[in-house]
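Researcher: First entry.
Model:
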Amino acid sequence: MASLELGTRQCGLRLRRLQALVASAGVDGLLLVTGVDGKYSVGCSQALAYLLQGASNREAAEAVHLAEDLSDCVLLVTRSELVAYVPRAETAAQIYDLLAESTPGVTVLVPTPEEAADPDAVEETKLGAFVALLRGKKLLAMPWVVHNDSTPSTPPSTMQLEQWPLLQALGLEGVTDVCAQLQDTVYSHLDGHAVERAMGESAATLQQHWFEMIRAVGSKAPGPAAAALTERQVLEPLISYFSYGLLRPAHGVAQAVATMPPKVLAGARTNDDAAASEPLALSDAPGPSPGAPPLHFVAEAADGRGPLRCARTYFLSQAALTRNPFADVEEEAEEGYSFDASTAGWAAGDALLLMRTYASVVAASKAAMAHFATADGADATSARGVAMRALEGVLDSGADARFALWECDHVNRVSSPAVRGSRKLKVPAHAGAPPQLLNLTERLPPLVAFPVLGVEGAAAARAKASFARLAAASPESALASDATALAAAAGARAARRTRLAKRATVQADCAAAKLRAAAVSSEEEGGIELPKEVAEEEEEEEDVDDDASWAKGDPLLAAAPLLGRMLTFGGGEPALLLTGAPTVPALPGTLWCFSAGLVFVADGSGALSVLPFYGRLEAMTLQTLRGSSPDGSDSLGEAVVLRGCGPACGLAPACHVTTNTHLAIPLAGMTATGRRHILSDVLPVWQQACADSGAPSELRTPGIAELPLGAPQISYLKDADLDNPLPAECHRAGVAAVHRAHGGGSKRWPAMDEADGSVEAAVARLDAMELAAGLAPLDPSLEALLPGNGTGVPISLVLGAPSADVPSVCCAVATCLGERDTRAAVALIEGAAVAISPAAINAALNAALSGGGAGRPAHVVLGAITSHGAVALLRCLAASKAISSGAARLVGIVSCVSAEALYEEPARGVLMPGLLAQLAPGYVDAVVLSAGGAKASDISHANALLASAAGGAPVLRGSRPALVRARDELLPGTAERRARLAASAGLRRWGAGADGGLPQLSSGPIQAVLLTWVGELDVASLRSALATVGLPAAKADTLELSEEVAAKGQRLMVAAAVYVDGMTGGAPAELLATRAYGLRRRDWGLAGVTLAAGGPKLPPGGVPGGQLLLMGSGLAPEALCTLLQSAGTGAGAPTVPPRTRDSLTQDERSAIAAAKRLSALPAGCCFDGSVYRDDFGDVIKEHPSMGVFIGEFMAKENERITAENAAVAEQAARALAVTAVQQWL
């Protein structure tokens, strides 16, 4: 029902907010009616979309996008429950899935398939459900008046409600409007799902259009084509996104956005706050001084459907010249182009100063936001102080630096300054975790530089064009040319080494001869001459060197003097460059590798960077880039790290805004092909290039590159344990970029640079903090009870409805304890079906702890056959004297559920009241599912339901052998249980706020009648008798429209009996009947077990008899006594109901007509011997007084039936006598 899935606990949290509003407004409930019956109420649609569809932020103010299955429903939110009518069973299942774990009191009514097929029946069912929802409610709240900021609001009037068809039918009065309260105190609060929607949809879409804006400029860069773009052309992706968000108006939302509307301004125009984007070319914008070109432009973006805003300053200069190592020198000479001449007089001072100032402002803004979000006592003023201190030494003392922190809600209402701790803005600390800042626009590059203007842009354009010709060479021709060059170089190198060895020998001989002739004057001797063959070899060597030099004119070798051989062919390899500059932490782009350098073209800006190794690098390492996480989750894996002679290895613009000299190429940011290329083809060559940087010229490998004079030696090291040289902030941005890149794995929140786990933890803390603040605080008495501290006797609590197999589970727990040589006592809480108290629990515990002459037990198994929820039962247990005095302590909780009794109305899919409350996620250690006579499909469905609603507690099979095998789940260890309790504290918050009241049936308050009898019971007769009163139900009960009829109608939900049959040896047996299945007999789960308390009242001495518990609404004890008595052995035929006119058969009608054929006729009528005629002579088919005759016949028949039933009852009373009747209301 939501585009970005609404979590179960997030939906539960939103329901708690609505319930808190109901409590604060002092009303009985919040009523929501959608569709035509609510006259398409805007306020009701908003509330329903917020609760069940996950509408957040701006969507919470929209009212026209309800899912089809929610467009014709009714919801009532009370202080502790949600009761709803929906037209489809699938929708009801979705609501249960969303709220089962977090909300114990959920009831959803749906029409049966038969009713759904009949339009009239559907409307009658809806009206009946509406009556049932509002039964007993006197004062309701409804959101029917939607206020609009742009138009004056009118006071709410109930006259508007009188036009609603469903309310007209009921005549509802006593209604108050809460639309304004919902807008101000519910929708405007930032919860976890609202943050997820902002991150997953709003921020992601804004980022998509922002990068389109960058590509719009970068696709034409470098060069004058990008400079010719106008401000409006650059703005187009941002303004179209913003305008699209305004196409669909929302109620109560001002369409005009006065705070940061989208715009792009270039040059000095950025100084005018009121300026708007114009069709002005970027190159024509005013610069920092008259006649100077602009250096930058400012882009501001706004989400048209929410409060998300973003602003960045981007530069039209990289403050660096790109020399063209790929140029054809002869071609440039013919053109008359000279790089030195064309760039003479170029200066980057202004651009460099502006870029560094902007980087400082970015750092100061981040520091201010972090301070505001994480520092205790921070406010807008202290945040400004942090920003200004960070800018000391950067701005002039008289500079006018403006600083503002503002916040706005889901309808674009702005309040300034921001308030620390506001739920509209920040994630506070919770449960010992530090506060955390989530920046939804952090992924947008803080700094991008486009080389587009002046001589810088022209030089960059030439270099990129020349490199494009080089990169366009086909892989086949490149490989062939490369192989030929390598073969020639290898042969020349071998010959040269032979000549060098021969020359060394000759030079040694000459040196010896020189020493012998030392006495002779050098002028007279004319020096020592080398032999002719040696001199010729030197000349030949020079010739060979010339021949082995780089082939001029070969495009594949054009960059050889600077970069060496080209290693990467085709279109290059997608890669990431990571820097130590916080404003330029990660650059995605395309990488080409050379034997002694690389070329990188950045995505978006299109800037080409050339990095020769010789003269620019000091070291190269292959290492693992690790983060600060102990588990290594933020590791980037292997990376090639370059350490330069200057910042960022001279890579612009990063080199201007950092002092960190490193550049990293993470292999995880490349495709699988790219990683293999780097590891197998590139790194061995780069390692040789590093080795050659320190070798004599005669020993260097041919084809690497020329080594400039004074270039430092480059070291090469492969060590996975080296420290990460990048700052933590830059590494975190790199991790996020890698996860978004090729082969880097998937990122669940791609719009965020923050790690996915950190983002989700912050969202969870946001919701947990609100729960802990008052929506669902933990109960101190329960938190003290659950760990089982102390030295008292351990207690295992087993609870379940009367239809669940609580006795069998108690017996299984006792059996498991016996296997551990632990003597256990079993006690049932007496009268717990609908009434439970600390006194009753204390009585059961005292009886169990006394031991009954057998000594104090080592363990007590306490069973509770009850309709109360687990939390209500635990509160009574905590208040009992045995627990408060320390005589006993709780060590385990097991909840029992029957697959036969999951639903109050199986045909409507209405869950049994109190079922979810008995599961109590976070409290219960295990859930036992008893199959009974349920079908396999019902058991499978019950398993799925319990797995989703039990909060991770194990779901066990209910057979005794299976339970004995699952002893570790039934009797968890102390350490294990305490660890689970600590981990599930958040789950317990959902159930801690339960009011402890009895669950309500859809037909009225739940009631119980306990009948004790003596005598033989005929199970078949009881089965037939129960079938006449709806166990099992042949079809769904009609939802009564009349309050009086609903109050008087008797409706049974379950019948459970324990009895002794004298004819079968006196072994106790159990009977169970539900609305889904008929009466069945099974063994009594505690047969043979001595009960310390709470056992059924059975006649002594093996006399047949037992107890029958009947639960439902509108129960009549006298009628139930008659029903039980009619099932006694020897009671004869079952009682016959009185006859009505509809039961008259055709034969009986014919007999009456024949007997009364000649009876007196009314005045004016006649009988001609064959037919009857009236006053007008028309033929009458039957005697005119036939109705009177039938009434007389029925009266005689009912007198006979009454006499026969009395005789049957008298006989039954002698066979089965009800000795006690106990009733709970």
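Researcher: Second entry.
Model:
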Amino acid sequence: MDESKLKRSTKDENQYCTEEPPSKKRKENNNLLQMFNCIYFYIDKSLLIKEFLEDVPKIVCVTSPSGFGKSTNLKMLRFFFEMNYEKIEENEFQNLQNKKYFENLLISKEKKDDQTYLDKYQGKYPVIYLNFDSFFLIRSTFEATIEEFKGFIEDLYQRYRNINFENLDNYEREQWKKFQNGNVSIDELKESISFLCLSLNKALRKEIVLLIDNYDSPMLSIINTNNEFYKFYEQVFMDIFIQDKRYHYLFKTFITGKLKVNKDIYKKIIKRNNIYYFSIWKFEKFFNEIFINFDYILIKDIAFLLKNGYIEKKIPKLINYEMLKKDYIEKHREIIWTLFIEYGYLIDVSTNDCSISEVRKLKINTKIFREIIETKFSKWKRDLCNDKKIENALDLLTSDYDEERIIEFLKDTIMNNLGYSYSNDEYKFLDKYYTIIYSLLSLNYNYEVVTKKNFNENDNIRELLVIHKKYLESNTLNDIETTIVYIIIKNLNEDIGEKGCIEALDYNENLVFDDIELKKKYDKIIKFGIAIYEEKCDVIYEINYRNNFKKKKKQVNKVYTGELYGIAKKSNFYLVDKTKMISKLIGKEGYAFMIIRPRRYGKSLNLNMIRQFFEKPIDIKEKQERNSLFDGLEVSKDRKNMRHYHKYPVIYLNLNIYFMDYSSAIESLRYTISSLFNDYKNRIDFNKLRKDQQEQWNKIVERSDDVLLEQTIKFLCECLKEFYKRKCIILIDEYHKLFFRRIESDYDRRMFDTINSFFSETFKENEYLYFGIVTGCLDAELNDLNSGVNNIFNKCSPLKDIYFSDCYGFTEDELEKLLSHFNISDTKENGIKKRLKIEYDGYSCFSDKGIIKNIYNAYTIMNFIVHNMNQSDDFKLSSYWVNTGNDNELKKIITNSNLNFDVKFLSLFCNKIIKLSFDKDYQFDHNYLIKDTPYKDVWRLLLFSGYLTVADEKEYKENIKNMNDEMIKITSTDPTLMEMDSNEIQEYKSNLLKKKESKDIFYFKIPNQEIFYNLNSLIKEINGETENAYIINNFINGIYQKDLKAINESLNKYLLEFSSHHLFVWKERNSKASTQIKKSTELTEYSPPENVYQVFLMQLFTILKNVLVKKESRYDINNLAFSSKFYSSNLYIIEVKVSSKDEKNSLSKACKEAINQIEERKYESKFKYYEGFIKYGMAFHKRKCMVEMKINNGVIQEYSNENKKSKKNKKNKKNEKNEKNKKN
């Protein structure tokens, strides 16, 4: 059959085919247009009749798209062949009423056997015309559709109601009536059309012309919804031809449809299936039904097709209508390309006659087809982008980067599309994932998806770039931060999970894509490593940065002194980069750290920084707010670190809670944990937890009494691991706030037991823990041998920190950057760096590589910047740190321990580095506030509170070298030094420098001048709060006013207030202090050596009245020679001697020896700028003393003479007063 006879219009005829009838065209006969169902005109296709009659096949099936002219041609055939049923006797004389429509058509000129086709065939046959698209509707249920079909059959039979059925037997006539009335069973209904053909054939004794239009319309309409009617309809349709084989009632059959279906029983009726014209009207409903759930899978291929005009695919045969069902298509995706051909989108242009299983080259049919495909393609993408599921999936890959949800989406998608075949079966799953990802990303109109130019399908790697279109269009990329997504998909030979993702990420480390060096062109490259093993996949992403990346941001001119890292970064505050701490934590799975540092030392800020880095955001908004917090910082310089960015559930607790006693402390702790659970309930899909987990969770939120507080955090870890598919990070800040409070006699013991159990359950053998950090200012006794947390924590304190020793405080380099950033210049005139070093530097910390020195107090430095930015002089250096906390507990401990009278402690104020022996892993006694504080605890408390810092042996020995003889004597606990001469002192120092110390020896010093003054003030407060403060004032004022009575009486009275422990404490704590004093555990009142009394006096002057210290430097101490701002013209010199007896003569003799010793030192010649030299000789015996004085070169004034003179003067004044009263 000539193909042109089938088409509504050929290429030549198309010039006359427009939507509106042109004025110059002839008007067609209106009746013909109406008869053939044409609107404006009819293109003569009547030669189709000749082709139809002359073709050998008895049955012809033509499939083509809707609007192709099938129905018009079928109606033409109907009106040509159909006889006049009302005038049977005239039947031999043709159907003259219809004949007139063909007299002017081409068929009228055709002849056969010397007869025209009109005379030979027109109006000679009974015609059964069935249109299953126009006259029949599919209903929602099988029963309703059957009723609709019955109505269709009734109308069909009614067309032939006037025919004489005498030739039928009684059964056949009864059956006819039943079909006319619709009163038939389903089995009878299956034979309704075949019975009609047979009946007409018998009644009219004529073969039937059977015309079936849109035979496949019912099948396409119900293929995915009403499978029962599909089978019924197939039986109805096939019964027509089965019965024809038996009764031979058909003359010719012409069938039209949209799809060619190859089935054995159809082979004889299928003639042609060539398509040249397309209309989307009827196709769209079926197509959308087929592709509604997964049409985005086609995007990659259609994009390729539109770009190149062709595509190579396998084309399977359409064997039956089962192949059109969604279930089948989902398992055999390649059938889609068959449908594209059947509906006229594409044509097969393969040059070889290869088997259908081989790859065929498909080409877009015409320009019109391309436009239709592009329009449909655009509409698909727009509709899909409005789909929330697709929109969320796009966000996952372009902005959210949620690995778990990406995996979930990809697995769900791949399981729905397992039937999509690919040319390379070895990498079929790789290509499926590649197709899904490419197609998905192509939906977003804001992004361009770029594939590799040189692509080998036999490689086990697929690569994609996702670039925002504004980067492609802009010529000013330097003005904006550019972020692209680079996806590498790797096919694995074995299931190795995340290791495969790492392999994918490590592929193309240089980030060169088609000769483009991405790190030179773009600021941030989000690199996804996707590992594929059959249907399984794993996803990990990392962030790579441009070479020498610098974050584009506004000039930072604000200083942050708070503890909230995220707020500081988002608000554009300046923060010193401490993100190397994050790098140190990565890979420490199962570790628990206890970090001990002084207050305001950056613990909370660093903890918040860690949280901001690791914690997975709750949603895309939070993700975008935090996406750039770490851009350009130290942690981001290693791309492997960024694989952990925003990946983990983080549990954060701050234990700085309010309480009055143990019960209220526990209740506050329960409330804090309840709030934590309540917060996380809003962050996760709570319903995904098991029912028992939900019940336990709600109990914790409600603070139920049957909940074990100790197990709550581990339970939360278990739940979050189940939801996030990752282990948890636990951060606990200020744990020490629960301890060290004098509240109840047993408070610390009970709280210790509680926290011990809490930490044990939380950190010990917690399989859901990635790592944990506990921070505080003090090291509580939480890992003794009987403790549940024994050996859990890796302790990190100034005494030993092998992990984070360089993560707290500021270094010299960091300080220099700060000063430069805030325009604080260091000049010879202002010397600000040197002044800052003296004032705020000096902290140290022991690491695994030795001691780290010259660490500045961060809080103080930041406050200095706040008050001095953009200054070049007149700097304000204040004690910023001292006002940041309450030192009441420290004051109590120092008072209880009498540390303010300790020789070693007081020698710190003479710039001495002291050494102590204790275990670096020792913890505080949990109830040290209740009992006398152990000596070592006090020192550790001073260290962890920030008042002391550690030094190393080298610095200690350097300190010894620089001390003069008198300072060695004063600050030593060895009494034999007092009798040594200069040579002996030098030998003593030499032995100290050569001595090798044991491993338990630690060295301590006051770190800087800010701390010196703060500690000085603290000790003054401690002593100033005593009842003897007025006695001390009288003593010191007596020194300045040269009042021997006030000096002697005040000093003796003050000494009597001391217990033996105060003055003889040196013996208890230094068993090797003197070879002259018998060792004993009892405190007997042997008179101490001179240096004890020297330190005693130094404590009075240095600590209480600060008279020995000049403001310029804490180091300017000249033994016991000093001046005062109120008596600046005089130099006051004190020499101390110890008397063997407490007798007056013995004490007086010792005083004179002391004054003579002062004379020998010739202070007058050394300090010529003083006008007066006041020399005091002080003699001590136990808690008794005597003081004598010599002014310049005068005589020595004794206390006894002065006393008599004072009494005489008092008596004279009294007599004068009495005489005066008498006169009045």
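Model: Note on the second entry: Residues 563 and 604 are 6 Å apart (CA to CA).
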